Amino acid sequence: MRIKPALTTASLIVTLTLTLTGCSSYTVNDCRKALTDTSTETNRPKECQDISQADYEALLMSRDLDKALDGLSDEDKDLLDYHDDGQLNDSITGG
After folding, report:
1. 95 residues of the chain, pLDDT tens digit each
2. Stated pTM of the model
């Protein structure tokens, strides 16, 4: 799917940000894997208990963004790609 590279990039950015703010990437990765549709700001999986509220909220936002981008049609992905740099060259999705 064309959107996966963009999602991977977004996830990498979130992981890097959380790592630089003092969270170990091991805990962040465990938390990201444990997130479900029922995970909310106040309903944390046990794997997410040790990370800060700000970091947890960033992971929730990343999860929601991934879902939104996955739901785009190919036409909408092309439109987003075109608005990025004026060309249809997979600059947003990477392939």
Report:
1. 455 566 566 666 666 565 555 544 557 889 999 999 999 999 999 999 988 999 999 999 989 988 887 788 888 888 887 777 777 777 665 55
2. 0.58
